[in-house]
Write a structure and sequence with these properties.
This protein is of the alpha+beta class. The chain contains 8 helices and 7 strands; from the N terminus they run ααβααβαααβββββα.
Length: 228
């Protein structure tokens, strides 16, 4: 999918020096596989966008942060917390390179002129359903604790895509335990081919690892925008 391709082409996490820095900065973010009964895989959205039941790559990047380390004005309402986390993902430094890359390619396209491009717009949006981000993500569902986007290609392509998927940004506030759980959940697939190659992994191992590294970068960058 587009996110994976951009990661492969531009992150450059191959050098030992950069890899060491990456490990230090993202050690608190953990990658977990999604169980087959995860609710995101059971939603009507997944059925709609993956009608041929193509094999999918899916995982979640999870980060726990003590409530007392979060800006208090973000804790007044669950929806406000989720919107701030989503805004942090897209306006933070972790997405800066991909944002600039997509901007150079697509911002002048008339279709994308009303998309969110500038950091200020990305930081202040409430991410309602129908919001488009940098001609690459489209908000397709929103609840107080979750914002789900279709990913992989431009929102102008509404039919099945060779690069397709769902990307969920969610928060869970547990005041009793004094912690907020932040989650970036990814489900990527080829909705055009479906089960043409059922025994083949949907994405190469290297692409999966780079995707997971990028998810950790987005997570840490977003958390920084919300911390005191």
């Amino acid at each position: 999918m587009g996110l994976l391709r951009t990661t492969l082409a531009f992150t450059g996490w191959s050098s030992l020096a950069v890899a060491s820095t990456f490990v230090a900065l993202t050690r608190r973010s953990k990658i977990h596989p999604l169980p087959r009964n995860d609710y995101l895989l059971q939603t009507g959205l997944y059925t709609r966008y993956n009608p041929k039941k193509a094999p999918a790559m899916h995982d979640a990047c999870v980060r726990h942060l003590p409530i007392d380390q979060i800006k208090p004005e973000l804790l007044e309402r669950q929806e406000q917390l989720t919107e701030a986390f989503c805004a942090g993902v897209w306006s933070g430094l972790g997405y800066a390179f991909q944002r600039r890359y997509l901007e150079m390619k697509y911002r002048d396209d008339p279709f994308a002129k009303d998309h969110l491009w500038d950091r200020s717009a990305l930081a202040s949006s409430s991410y309602e359903v129908g919001t488009n981000i940098t001609d690459h993500f489209e908000v397709v569902s929103k609840t107080p604790d979750s914002i789900i986007m279709r990913a992989g290609a431009s929102p102008r392509v509404q039919e099945p895509r060779s690069d397709d998927g769902l990307f969920e940004i969610s928060t869970q506030m547990n005041r009793d335990e004094g912690v907020v759980v932040f989650s970036l959940k990814s489900v990527f697939f080829n909705s055009v081919k479906g089960h043409e190659t059922p025994d083949k992994a949907p994405f190469p191992w290297v692409a999966v690892k780079l995707h997971q590294a990028y998810a950790k970068i987005l997570m840490e960058s977003a958390v920084q925008t919300m911390s005191k």
